Amino acid sequence: MSETPPNEPADFDTMARDIAEVPAVEVIVTVAVNLMSAAAVKLGLTEEGDQYKDLDEARKLVHALAGLLDAGATEISSFHAAPLRDGLKSLQLAFREASVVPDEPGQGPGEKYTGAVFG
Question: DSSP for 2-38?
Fold first, then answer.
């Protein structure tokens, strides 16, 4: 996408053309990776560890990721969906481990879409 200097207004026509060139699969995968990255940070899985840990925020991100993958899996092919589902499961397991009071099986973040996740 085009870089707009901070003091100039955004050129929305250019931005729209830039976005129009990106395939839908790439947009869906990029959003999923961003959700995964944000969830990992909120789960304390980064080098900073617990500094940014917030399980309430992590729950929302993992749930949104699961919903996106559930809705988009048929659109992005198993080539893209399989590693994203693996990442989702890893985040769900990390959430379960990080919780002081774990959710009942099937009640964890995103398990509405994936079914119960067990280690």
Answer: ----TTS---HHHHHHHHHTS-HHHHHHHHHHHHHHH
